[in-house]
Amino acid sequence: MLTKSDLMYDLPEELIAQHPPKVRGTCRLMVLNRKDRSFHEEKFSRIREYIKPEDALVLNDTRVIRARLSGKREDTGGTVEFLLLQELSPLVWKTMVRPGRQCRTGNVFHFNHSLKATVVQELGKGRAVVEFSSGGNTSELIEKSGTVPIPPYIKRLPDELDSVRYQTVFAENDGAVAAPTAGLHFTPEMLQSIEDTGTSINRLTLHVGPGTFQPLRRELLAENTMEEERYSISSETLESLRRCRQKGGRIVAAGTTVTRTLESIDISSQTSLSGSTSIFIHPPYRFRNVDVLLTNFHLPGSSLISLVGSFAGLDLIMDAYTKAIESKFMFYSYGDAMLII
Fold it and tell me: What CA–CA distance (Å, rounded) separates 93 from 175?
């Protein structure tokens, strides 16, 4: 049986991208062909040449919110960090609290701009439901006080550039605490160029949660689980995907979040779908609704490399990662991309 150790590799720290490319869409692209087990380097700007007119490209249009807030506990002055996970009702949020021992019912925390939060329910595992209040427009102050929740492997504070570049150009629906990073590479001009060839551009929403950064906890892959993430997909997108398949086209998933959503649903549904998924994809797995996968280079021992290893074959992925390291590709959220065909 496969274990977490099978997903491990050594990555030099200097290959972890700390900043986005100076110009969006100028990253390198490794094209991995599953049929002949080959891989070669390409420019991402040429990705259109690998997507056919009859194909359907699927994007995740979630928008990263300014979800990280730093404040102090009212009675002790101790520092605290909130990561806003989901707005349950106006001004009431499901939140990750660090340190977790701070999230006791009744505890009050103060943030910038006279913003205040009170724990109204403990959820365990460092989670709590909190209610915000202020002397002004509280919703605006939450947005103003928060910062972009860049990943922990980016060893710097977020800046204003992250507000733009840690967001896809097609982001529309608020709710993510991490970007669907495969989509970060696209520019409006690239997407228009792909659509002009006849390829359909489709959207769904999966609000990426903090679990995307968390390592697998159990050694046996099959024993691991993932946190639930909320998704929605319109009937129009589902109909487009069915037309693509009827024409003999391929469904091209822009990222692991799109893949997990598509593999969680029945694309034959005649109505829009919404819900939550906690699907954890690990080898062996038979993909039903994804034919081509665009993705970044992922953390060792993570659910993400488990997914791409399931799609391409774990041995082929590990060979490709070895080559990428030798060729000094950049890794993780702001790094280079891989197209698996």
Answer: 11
- Nearest Cα neighbor of 165 from 175, 153, 179 is 179
Place of tokens 């608020």: 174
List of residues 6+ apart from 308 with CB closer than 8 A? 256, 293, 295, 298, 317, 338, 340
- Identify the pLDDT of residue 6: 96
pLDDT score, position 103: 83
**Contact yes or no for 12/320 (Cβ under 8 A):** no
Give pTM, 2 decimals.
Answer: 0.95
3-class secondary-structure state, position 292: strand
Distance, CA of 8 to CA of 147 (rounded, Å): 31
Of 204, 180, 172, 202, the closest CA to residue 304 belongs to: 180
Report whether 189 contacts 212 (CB < 8 A). no
What pLDDT is attached to residue 211? Answer: 81
Residue 202: both structure tokens together? 């489709």
Low-confidence ranges of the chain (pLDDT < 50): none
- In order of start, what are the domains of the chain with their CATH numbers? 4-64+161-340 (3.40.1780.10), 68-145 (2.40.10.240)
| CA gap 141, 34 in Å, rounded | 49
DSSP-derived letter for residue 130 is: E
pLDDT of res. 136 = 86
CA separation for the pair 40, 281 (Å, rounded): 26
Instruction: Say what the pLDDT of residue 4 is.
Output: 95
Q: Which of 257, 209, 216, 185 is nearest to 17 (CA)?
A: 185
